[in-house]
């Protein structure tokens, strides 16, 4: 039997559920999810393997008008991902209007391969509102296959997976068949810490912060991790630490529990907070942080 393999790229505006969809297709909680916008900052590959196929799913940052260099780098990652995709998924949310989604549609129209437009969160509206939403998006992107979806509750996820596998070209596997992602353990640890920051801190703090894992030492009994939380101002550092270190301890505890579930081992997590005023605008630093 011939082996099939290919890349499927997922694009959409911030906060439409791209990461939730990737996790649902993989059947694994690989990528962090949060109701706040800009949860995904990097292109992340999730790899779904079968005996005769390898489906490489590419989750990209939500499409927006960039306000600073970090966001410009994020949008470059979106555009680069379109180049190597075999199939494109455009994810929108029921109630979203095509005329307000031109940044997404413009990129989708440039793509020349098969396109699937998924209208997500259809379980959140009355049933009679679903068909008009599908028709609206079909008119906006006539060449796409338009499908209603609930990534969170699994509506049409298995059918979508089967369709994507059927579209794959004949090709050897791009990655070893036991890999789930192209990203390192350190990357996922930093993302889990950042996910807890999105949950625990308000306003600009999570968007001004970067997490860097400096050491990851694994033994049979325990995993020892030292990570820095980088913020842009002294005032933000004070908020992250909190009165008497209370907020930082809570962040460390919640992040440690999440990491322990992920690595299936006990974890010692040492978090420090540092100030770097221009990290979002400095090309050299952004490259060092993986942007």
Can you give keywords for this protein?
single chain, about 290 residues, alpha/beta, Rossmann fold, GMP Synthetase, Chain A, domain 3, 2 domains, six-stranded mixed beta sheet, three-stranded mixed beta sheet, 10 helices, globular
Secondary-structure map with pairings?
Blueprint: E1 4-11, H1 18-26, E2 44-50, E3 53-59, H2 69-83, E4 87-93, H3 102-110, E5 115-120, H4 130-140, E6 145-148, H5 157-167, H6 185-200, H7 205-208, E7 210-218, E8 223-231, H8 234-241, H9 246-263, E9 267-275, H10 283-288
Parallel strand pairs: 1-3, 1-4, 4-5, 5-6, 8-9
Antiparallel strand pairs: 2-3, 7-8
Helix pairs in contact: 6-9
How is this structure best described in words?
Helices cover 37% and strands 23% of the residues. The chain is of the alpha/beta class and 291 residues long. It folds into 2 domains: 4-167, P-loop containing nucleotide triphosphate hydrolases (Rossmann fold, 3-Layer(aba) Sandwich); 185-288, K homology (KH) domain (GMP Synthetase, Chain A, domain 3, 2-Layer Sandwich). A 6-stranded mixed β-sheet has the order 2-3-1-4-5-6, with helices on both faces. Strand 7 (210-218) and strand 8 (223-231) form a beta hairpin. Helix 6 crosses helix 9.
Short account of what is shown:
The protein is an alpha/beta fold. It has helices spanning about 20-25, 70-85, 100-110, 130-140, 155-165, 185-200, 205-210, 235-240, 245-265, 285-290; strands at about 5-10, 45-50, 55-60, 85-95, 115-120, 145-150, 210-220, 225-230, 265-275.
């Amino acid at each position: 039997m011939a082996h099939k393999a290919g890349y499927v790229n997922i694009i959409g505006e911030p906060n439409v559920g791209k990461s939730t969809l990737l996790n649902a297709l993989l059947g694994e909680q690989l990528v962090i999810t949060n109701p706040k916008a800009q949860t995904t900052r990097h292109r992340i590959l999730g790899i779904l393997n079968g005996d005769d196929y390898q489906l490489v799913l590419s989750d990209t940052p939500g499409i927006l008008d960039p306000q600073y260099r970090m966001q410009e780098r994020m949008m470059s990652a979106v555009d680069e991902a379109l180049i190597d995709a075999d199939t494109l998924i455009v994810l929108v949310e029921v109630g979203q209007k095509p005329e307000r989604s031109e940044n997404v549609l413009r990129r989708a129209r440039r793509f020349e391969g098969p396109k699937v437009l998924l209208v997500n969160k259809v379980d959140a509206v009355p049933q009679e509102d679903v068909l008009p939403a599908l028709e609206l998006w079909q008119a906006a992107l006539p060449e796409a296959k338009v499908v209603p979806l609930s990534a969170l509750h699994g509506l049409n996820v298995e059918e979508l997976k089967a369709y994507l596998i059927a579209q794959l070209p004949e090709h050897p596997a791009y990655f070893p068949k036991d890999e789930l992602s192209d990203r390192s353990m350190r990357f996922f640890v930093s993302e889990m810490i950042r996910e807890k920051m999105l949950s625990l801190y308000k306003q600009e703090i999570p968007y001004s912060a970067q997490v860097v894992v400096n050491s990851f030492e694994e033994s049979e009994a325990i995993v020892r991790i030292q990570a820095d939380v980088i913020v842009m101002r002294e005032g933000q550092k004070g908020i992250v630490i909190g009165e008497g270190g209370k907020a930082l301890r809570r962040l460390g505890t919640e992040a440690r529990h999440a990491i322990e579930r992920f690595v299936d081992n006990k974890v010692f997590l040492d978090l420090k907070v540092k100030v770097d005023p221009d990290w979002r605008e400095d090309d050299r630093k952004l490259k060092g942080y993986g942007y």
